Automatic annotation (TrEMBL):
It comes from Ostreococcus lucimarinus (strain CCE9901). This is WHEP-TRS domain-containing protein. InterPro entries: WHEP-TRS_dom (IPR000738). Signal peptide: none annotated. One of its GO terms (biological process) is tRNA aminoacylation for protein translation. GO terms for molecular function: aminoacyl-tRNA ligase activity; ATP binding. It comes from the Eukaryota. Residues 48-62 have a biased composition (Basic and acidic residues). Residues 1-62 are annotated as: Disordered.
Length: 338
């Protein structure tokens, strides 16, 4: 029982005592926290099939963030028939020849089917049929699997394509989803500037060579020599207004700045500084990795980068056979879940 401070909460002896309720900053939990199964765990960003169906009809979804703003999802009658075929066969077929980055915004069928693949946890397969009857392309997006590592799965898809006589092009390279998301999170936190953490994640960070003791000693001697020259000129009766004294002071300041930079670099590359920097870097990498894992799970599919593979097929029967084989392939054992 919770007591409130005030007239209505006074006990029989007049000693009403306030009791802290659950919530932020309290050791107790609220009823919603105790009954919510997703409390302190990742909240899935996958939409429900019902929300995808609602989006395909142009209706308001029950959950927020299911659809991308300014991107079309509402299907026409012909597009709905094509989508129903895609759900049965496991792959979508389009006759678009567009290859630009805005193509997905102009095709509600592609947007809706990608959201559906995310909802059911299957790979997105789309066969781009050449209008002129030439080579068809099977485009696969493995981002709908929401895995932290999918290299083995992509290798398996390439094997299927090569076995059927198609050429494989992996647009993901050698980068795994988790590492790509870590780079994105680090770049976003740094204002998309090339920070030291981004360089470490990209493997471009190079340690600056530390100056040697002899170099630091030579810099100190240069500072002493420049100071002696300025002192001699002033002892001879010259003032700071003279040009040669001004030039000597400039040389002295430059020598001091060079010495300070060398001493700072030596201190930065010392054993204690390196150990502290490694500890800080390790903590930052752990934090970035946790944020990346959470975003891979909780972000809607349109908020995640596409991970495309493109397979060029010599003819349409090969494209249909490859699309069917990819849809039937069980990739779950080859994935590393987040």
């Amino acid at each position: 029982m919770h007591w409130r401070v005030g007239k209505g909460s006074e006990s029989a002896n007049g000693a009403g005592e306030a009791t802290a309720r659950g919530g932020k900053g309290s050791s107790k939990t609220t009823r919603s926290q105790r009954t919510n199964k997703s409390y302190k765990v990742y909240v899935s960003g996958r939409p429900t099939i019902d929300d995808v169906e609602r989006a395909s009809r142009g209706e308001k979804t029950k959950s927020m963030g299911v659809v991308e703003r300014e991107a079309p999802y509402r299907l026409t009658r012909d597009e709905r028939e094509a989508w129903e075929r895609a759900k049965r066969r496991g792959g979508l077929e389009t006759r678009s020849a567009s290859r630009d980055g805005l193509a997905r915004r102009r095709f509600p069928l592609v947007n809706t089917h990608r959201a559906y693949c995310d909802a059911v946890g299957m790979v997105f397969v789309c066969t781009e049929q050449d209008v002129g009857g030439g080579e068809d392309c099977v485009v696969v997006d493995v981002s709908t699997l929401r895995a932290s590592e999918d290299g083995d799965a992509r290798a398996r898809l390439s094997e299927l394509a090569i076995a059927l006589g198609a050429s494989a092009e992996d647009l993901c390279g050698d980068e795994e989803p988790l590492m790509a998301q870590m780079r994105y999170v680090a770049a976003m936190e740094g204002g998309f500037e090339r920070t030291a953490l981004v360089e470490v994640l990209e493997g471009d960070a190079e340690a600056e060579p530390a100056p040697s003791e002899s170099e630091i000693a030579a810099a100190r001697d240069a500072v002493s020599a420049a100071a002696d020259r300025v002192r001699e000129m002033k002892d001879s009766g010259k003032s700071n207004a003279d040009d040669d004294v001004k030039a000597g002071v400039r040389c002295l300041l430059e020598a001091k700045a060079k010495l300070g930079a060398m001493e700072a670099a030596a201190e930065k590359t010392s054993a204690a500084a390196n150990e502290a920097a490694e500890v800080d870097l390790e903590a930052e990498l752990k934090r970035i990795e946790e944020a990346a894992r959470r975003s891979l799970v909780e972000l809607p599919i349109h908020g995640l980068p596409e991970r495309y593979m493109r397979f060029k097929c010599p003819d349409r029967p090969t494209a249909k056979a490859l699309s069917k084989a990819i849809a039937k392939e069980d990739l779950a054992p080859l994935l590393l879940e987040v």
